[in-house]
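[recover] target loaded
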């Protein structure tokens, strides 16, 4: 591979690696935020249900709404964990392919 083509490929790879790392960072931040919400659910259960009851909902309906919210948060945590794993896998794939390309060029 001519040196100038390798340089263009390396820049493209560097850009891809930077974007992949940004994706990991964003995914991890979203995951951390979701974890904080999840950890606060136990302590905020009564407050959440009581605030819904003050809007005119029955206690049973407010509990159901809270349970729905908990289930939504559970699914979000799972989805975000998968996103972080996928972002990390993509980054590792890029670093592996960049390393093998550099080895071939040398």
């Amino acid at each position: 591979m001519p040196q100038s083509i390798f340089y263009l490929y390396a820049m493209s790879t560097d850009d891809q690696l930077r974007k992949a790392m940004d994706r990991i960072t964003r995914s991890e931040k979203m995951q951390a935020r979701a974890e904080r919400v999840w950890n606060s659910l136990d302590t905020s259960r009564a407050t959440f249900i009581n605030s819904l009851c003050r809007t005119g909902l029955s206690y049973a309906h407010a509990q159901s709404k809270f349970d729905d919210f908990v289930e939504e948060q559970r699914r979000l945590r799972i989805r975000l964990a998968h996103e972080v794993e996928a972002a990390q896998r993509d980054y590792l794939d890029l670093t592996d392919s960049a390393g093998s390309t550099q080895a071939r060029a040398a």
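[recover] notes: The helical segments are 3-53, 59-105.
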